[in-house]
Amino acid sequence: MGGPYNNLNRIGGENNYDAGAFSLEANRSMARALGVVPGNGGYEIVVQCSGEILGDHPNYFRVPITVSAGTWTVAGVVTAQPTTTTLAASPAGTAAYGAPVTLTATVTPSAATGTVTFKRGATTIGTAAVSGGTASLSAADLPIGTLSLTAVFAPSGNDWAASTSAGVAYQVTAPAGGASGSQTILADVAPGAFSLGLAGDTVNLTGGVVGGQATGALHKATVTDLRGTNAGWNLVGQVQDFVNGSAQIPGDNLGWSPNAAKVDASGAVLAGVAAAPGGGTGLGTARTLCKANSGSSAGVFECGAGLTLDIPDSVAPGSYAATLTLTLA
Question: Can you give the pLDDT at residue 275?
Answer without folding.
Answer: 96
